[in-house]
Amino acid sequence: MTNKQRKRFIAGATCPQCKSVDSIMLYFENNVEKLQCVKCEYKDVQSATDVSEQVASAADVIGVFKP
Fold first, then answer.
1. Four-residue CA torsion sign, 16, 17, 20, 23
2. What range defines the domain where residue 34 resides?
3. Least CB-packed of 16, 23, 44, 56 within 10 Å?
4. Which pLDDT value is given to residue 14?
5. pTM above 0.70, yes or no
6. Residue 66 lies in a domain
7. In terms of Cα–Cα distance, which of 39, 46, 50, 51 is closest to 14?
8. How high is the pLDDT of residue 1?
9. What does the alpha-carbon distance between residue 10 and residue 44 come to, in Å, rounded to a whole number?
10. b/e burial code for range 1-38 (CB count within 10 A of at least 16 → b)
């Protein structure tokens, strides 16, 4: 049995490394949000504490949806 991850592309996103548009995909691995560019080796990780800090600083946010 294989464990398939659901990967989604972010429309209009620009890779900070290669500047390519529409090449960034978002996926979750072990409850950690990860970004990856499919054209270069760029990767970024955002932990739950990073998300919590961003939400706490944003006055307009009512809540964070966690699927």
1. negative
2. 8-47
3. 56
4. 93
5. no
6. no
7. 39
8. 46
9. 14
10. eeeeeeeeeeeebebeeeeeeebbebeeeeeeebbbbe
